[in-house]
Design a protein that fits this description.
Blueprint lengths: L3 E3 L1 H4 L9 H6 L5 E4 L1 H15 L5 H12 L4 E3 L5 H11 L3 H13 L2 E4 L2 H7 L8 E3 L7
Parallel strand pairs: 1-2, 1-4, 2-3, 4-5
Helix pairs in contact: 3-4, 5-6
Length: 140
């Protein structure tokens, strides 16, 4: 079974019930990797959910604790910086999302995302074959 790169839009569904949670949880049977940026992105998502009153502070803290223990290999972003920058410029898309693409490319893996904007940006790009929408993954 090949390794998959996942982004924060997928990982957050492990600890917060939202559309796509069953598909995201099924992926946990796979070997998973992500740029270490995932940690900061998940913390930011949890903060936003508290701010929008979707989670309590206590729920967000528990979710962060669970995510910190998740079985996912975190890759340093430094080695991905140059490629992510090139992809961001080429796709006209935020560089932090392009770090996931750069890791997938460097690792020869596919990236799974629930981020519709990212999926739309890579459509038509050669990397589109490496990007799998979470709602279209089959049994993880």
């Amino acid at each position: 079974m090949s390794t998959l790169v996942i982004d924060a839009s997928v990982a957050i569904k492990w600890v917060v019930e939202e559309p796509g949670t069953p598909e995201a949880l099924a992926l946990r049977r796979r070997r998973l990797t992500a740029p270490d940026l995932l940690v900061a992105e998940c913390a930011n998502i949890l903060w936003k959910k508290v701010r929008r009153r979707e989670l309590s502070a206590q729920e967000a803290t528990l979710a962060a604790r669970l995510l910190a223990r998740a079985d996912i290999e975190l890759a340093p972003t430094r080695r991905l910086l140059e490629r992510a920058t090139r992809l961001a410029v080429a796709l006209d898309h935020p560089a932090y999302d392009c770090l996931y693409l750069a890791l997938a490319e460097a690792s020869g893996c596919d990236v799974v995302t629930a981020d519709e904007r990212l999926c739309a940006k890579v459509a038509g790009h050669r990397l589109s074959m490496r990007v799998l929408r979470l709602d279209r993954t089959v049994d993880g």
